[in-house]
Design goal:
5-stranded mixed sheet; 4 helices; 40% helix; alpha/beta; 26% strand; 5 strands
């Protein structure tokens, strides 16, 4: 299950991560975000040994959304070594998400 992340803890969580981190930028009013949410949670559980997954509500954390130039949600950003390395925008089926992650881990 993906954990919520806030602006306050974001930098230290990303910088100190011992494995790649996937952040799901979403909002409760967003239909595609609600559709993708369970898929992200499944991936968080199934890939927990290789990846840490967080969810960032853009309405509650607008500074993070601005910092990463989130203009369309859902947006998923994969971080490695504290830096964003891959961005995926929009809802997608689980096999597509897993495939994109595998290619960038």
């Amino acid at each position: 299950m993906a954990q919520a992340i806030t602006t306050t803890e974001f930098s230290s969580v990303i910088a100190n991560a011992d494995k790649p981190v996937l952040v799901d930028f979403w909002a409760s009013w967003c239909g595609p975000c609600r559709a993708l949410g369970p898929v992200v949670d499944q991936v968080a559980t199934e890939m927990a040994d290789r990846l840490t997954v967080y969810k960032c509500n853009v309405d509650e954390e607008p500074d993070l959304a601005t910092q990463f130039r989130i203009v369309s949600i859902p947006t998923l950003i994969l971080f490695k070594g504290g830096k964003p390395v891959h961005t995926m925008v929009g809802n997608m089926p689980k096999p597509s998400l897993v495939s994109e992650l595998e290619a960038n881990l």
